[in-house]
Amino acid sequence: MDYWGRKIIREQLDKRLNAIKNVTMSSIPTHGWIKSIREALDMSTAQLGKKVGIDQSRISRIENAEITGEVKLSSLMKIAESMDMQFIYAFVPRQSLEDIVQEQARKIALERMKRLNNTMRLEEQELSEEQKKKVLEDMVQKIMIDEPKDFWN
Fold it and tell me: How much of the chain is helix, strand and coil, in % rounded to 5?
Protein backbone atom coordinates (compact mmCIF):
# COMPACT_ATOMS: atom_id res chain seq x y z
CA MET A 1 0.00 0.00 0.00
CA ASP A 2 1.30 3.47 -0.79
CA TYR A 3 1.69 6.45 1.52
CA TRP A 4 -1.69 7.99 0.69
CA GLY A 5 -3.54 4.75 1.37
CA ARG A 6 -1.77 4.31 4.71
CA LYS A 7 -2.45 7.95 5.58
CA ILE A 8 -6.19 7.56 4.91
CA ILE A 9 -6.29 4.42 7.05
CA ARG A 10 -4.50 6.23 9.90
CA GLU A 11 -6.92 9.17 9.65
CA GLN A 12 -9.96 6.86 9.70
CA LEU A 13 -8.60 4.92 12.67
CA ASP A 14 -7.80 8.18 14.49
CA LYS A 15 -11.45 9.26 14.10
CA ARG A 16 -12.71 5.94 15.45
CA LEU A 17 -10.22 5.95 18.32
CA ASN A 18 -11.07 9.54 19.28
CA ALA A 19 -14.66 8.42 19.81
CA ILE A 20 -13.58 6.05 22.59
CA LYS A 21 -10.74 8.19 23.99
CA ASN A 22 -13.03 9.94 26.52
CA VAL A 23 -14.34 6.61 27.76
CA THR A 24 -10.85 5.30 28.42
CA MET A 25 -9.80 8.47 30.24
CA SER A 26 -12.04 7.50 33.15
CA SER A 27 -10.07 5.31 35.49
CA ILE A 28 -10.59 1.63 36.09
CA PRO A 29 -12.44 1.01 39.36
CA THR A 30 -10.13 0.14 42.27
CA HIS A 31 -11.59 -3.36 42.56
CA GLY A 32 -11.74 -3.91 38.79
CA TRP A 33 -14.69 -3.86 36.42
CA ILE A 34 -15.95 -7.37 37.16
CA LYS A 35 -16.25 -6.93 40.91
CA SER A 36 -17.57 -3.36 40.64
CA ILE A 37 -20.31 -4.34 38.19
CA ARG A 38 -21.10 -7.57 40.06
CA GLU A 39 -21.52 -5.65 43.32
CA ALA A 40 -23.55 -2.90 41.62
CA LEU A 41 -25.91 -5.65 40.42
CA ASP A 42 -25.96 -7.05 43.99
CA MET A 43 -24.68 -10.37 42.68
CA SER A 44 -22.50 -12.73 44.74
CA THR A 45 -19.45 -14.48 43.34
CA ALA A 46 -21.37 -17.76 43.62
CA GLN A 47 -24.27 -16.33 41.59
CA LEU A 48 -21.94 -14.98 38.91
CA GLY A 49 -20.06 -18.27 38.88
CA LYS A 50 -23.31 -20.14 38.26
CA LYS A 51 -24.17 -17.80 35.34
CA VAL A 52 -20.68 -18.23 33.85
CA GLY A 53 -20.57 -21.97 34.51
CA ILE A 54 -17.59 -21.95 36.88
CA ASP A 55 -17.26 -22.14 40.65
CA GLN A 56 -17.27 -19.17 43.03
CA SER A 57 -13.56 -19.46 43.87
CA ARG A 58 -12.67 -19.17 40.17
CA ILE A 59 -14.67 -15.91 39.97
CA SER A 60 -12.67 -14.55 42.92
CA ARG A 61 -9.39 -15.54 41.22
CA ILE A 62 -10.50 -13.86 37.96
CA GLU A 63 -11.43 -10.67 39.83
CA ASN A 64 -7.99 -10.64 41.46
CA ALA A 65 -6.29 -11.40 38.15
CA GLU A 66 -8.09 -8.42 36.60
CA ILE A 67 -6.61 -6.12 39.25
CA THR A 68 -3.07 -7.47 38.70
CA GLY A 69 -3.44 -7.39 34.91
CA GLU A 70 -3.10 -11.16 34.57
CA VAL A 71 -6.67 -11.94 33.53
CA LYS A 72 -7.24 -13.76 30.24
CA LEU A 73 -9.28 -12.02 27.56
CA SER A 74 -11.33 -15.17 27.12
CA SER A 75 -12.34 -14.99 30.80
CA LEU A 76 -13.39 -11.35 30.47
CA MET A 77 -15.42 -12.15 27.35
CA LYS A 78 -17.13 -15.11 29.03
CA ILE A 79 -18.05 -13.08 32.14
CA ALA A 80 -19.29 -10.13 30.08
CA GLU A 81 -21.46 -12.43 27.98
CA SER A 82 -22.92 -14.11 31.08
CA MET A 83 -23.95 -10.68 32.43
CA ASP A 84 -25.46 -9.70 29.05
CA MET A 85 -22.74 -7.12 28.46
CA GLN A 86 -20.47 -6.37 25.57
CA PHE A 87 -16.75 -6.78 26.19
CA ILE A 88 -14.65 -4.14 24.46
CA TYR A 89 -10.90 -4.43 23.95
CA ALA A 90 -8.98 -1.55 22.41
CA PHE A 91 -5.65 0.17 22.05
CA VAL A 92 -6.08 3.92 22.41
CA PRO A 93 -3.02 5.91 21.37
CA ARG A 94 -1.97 8.87 23.51
CA GLN A 95 -1.54 10.91 20.34
CA SER A 96 -2.88 10.49 16.81
CA LEU A 97 -1.52 7.67 14.66
CA GLU A 98 -0.45 10.29 12.14
CA ASP A 99 1.56 12.09 14.85
CA ILE A 100 3.21 8.81 15.88
CA VAL A 101 4.32 8.14 12.30
CA GLN A 102 5.48 11.72 11.84
CA GLU A 103 7.47 11.59 15.10
CA GLN A 104 9.21 8.39 13.98
CA ALA A 105 10.00 9.92 10.57
CA ARG A 106 11.42 12.99 12.36
CA LYS A 107 13.73 10.77 14.46
CA ILE A 108 15.08 9.13 11.30
CA ALA A 109 15.43 12.50 9.58
CA LEU A 110 17.32 13.98 12.53
CA GLU A 111 19.80 11.09 12.44
CA ARG A 112 20.29 11.61 8.70
CA MET A 113 20.63 15.35 9.22
CA LYS A 114 23.44 14.81 11.75
CA ARG A 115 25.42 12.80 9.21
CA LEU A 116 24.66 15.28 6.42
CA ASN A 117 25.57 18.26 8.59
CA ASN A 118 28.89 16.66 9.62
CA THR A 119 29.79 16.00 6.00
CA MET A 120 28.85 19.52 4.91
CA ARG A 121 30.74 21.07 7.84
CA LEU A 122 33.87 19.15 6.84
CA GLU A 123 33.46 20.50 3.31
CA GLU A 124 32.78 23.97 4.72
CA GLN A 125 29.31 24.04 3.18
CA GLU A 126 27.24 24.00 6.36
CA LEU A 127 23.59 25.04 5.98
CA SER A 128 22.03 27.97 7.77
CA GLU A 129 19.50 27.24 10.54
CA GLU A 130 16.65 28.18 8.19
CA GLN A 131 17.99 25.87 5.49
CA LYS A 132 18.39 23.05 8.04
CA LYS A 133 14.74 23.41 9.11
CA LYS A 134 13.57 23.28 5.49
CA VAL A 135 15.75 20.27 4.67
CA LEU A 136 14.58 18.51 7.85
CA GLU A 137 10.89 19.03 7.01
CA ASP A 138 11.49 17.84 3.44
CA MET A 139 13.28 14.76 4.76
CA VAL A 140 10.44 14.00 7.18
CA GLN A 141 7.89 14.15 4.35
CA LYS A 142 10.05 11.98 2.06
CA ILE A 143 10.61 9.40 4.81
CA MET A 144 6.87 9.29 5.56
CA ILE A 145 6.07 8.82 1.88
CA ASP A 146 8.80 6.25 1.19
CA GLU A 147 8.55 4.60 4.63
CA PRO A 148 11.77 2.57 4.42
CA LYS A 149 11.83 -1.04 5.61
CA ASP A 150 13.77 -0.04 8.75
CA PHE A 151 11.22 2.67 9.63
CA TRP A 152 10.43 1.20 13.07
CA ASN A 153 13.93 -0.12 13.88
Answer: 70, 0, 30
